């Protein structure tokens, strides 16, 4: 079932507009960056990295490079065409202002990491392109049925990614990689803020009705590509000497979003928060 069947479960359009305006106001063109001019590529040197750090760069390049798959999820679940009723279209069209900007930024992340690999002597461009295509062609889906779930999922994933990039930057032996990761982490932090804003608006406008859908996201959470990438778990273990790629670290931020959104916790919200806390590895 698509979420087109649940138009009443969507956020009122003014709420979407508020979140999108906030995101775009926090993302002025003057503060944007590009792969071509933001870094001193001539100084990039993978010889300054440990084996684990190089492996981590390969891993995150694959994850970021899957953008077409992630972007497509929005088109499928928030269509901007004649398959939806006019009011759903208006909602989806407003959301689209976020989605295209977000996608441009994520695509830039993929290019920056691939460029780093090439400039630092980790990979030859043609070989890397061929290698990325193997995972790139695999399907990606978030088979959710309530719209809030896409934002709750992305909230956790963007925050986990931001934290991982910060950990990796802090230990990176190559300052050029450090600079790349700083830029990426800052973008992920803004993406997280948008998702947090949207999830907060869902909680304020729909209350207890979104509690079970959010709980469902936490209960079945997997980082992107965890179920499809060859050797994902072996790889995640291998790069753990750098920093754990652990989404449960992001759960405390989800709890904060819930607490900010609701003045007084209902029993169901209270139960949700207890459940999320239990899912955190580090108590
Ligand atoms: Fe990214
Ligand atoms: Fe992001």
UniProtKB/TrEMBL annotation:
Keywords: Fatty acid biosynthesis, Fatty acid metabolism, Iron, Lipid biosynthesis, Lipid metabolism, Metal-binding, Oxidoreductase. The keyword Oxidoreductase applies. Its cofactor is Fe(2+). GO terms for biological process: fatty acid biosynthetic process. InterPro entries: Fatty_acid_desaturase-2, Ferritin-like_SF, RNR-like. Its EC number is 1.14.19.2. One of its GO terms (molecular function) is metal ion binding. Belongs to the fatty acid desaturase type 2 family. This is Acyl-ACP desaturase. It comes from Nocardia bovistercoris. The lineage of its organism: Bacteria, Bacillati, Actinomycetota, Actinomycetes, Mycobacteriales.
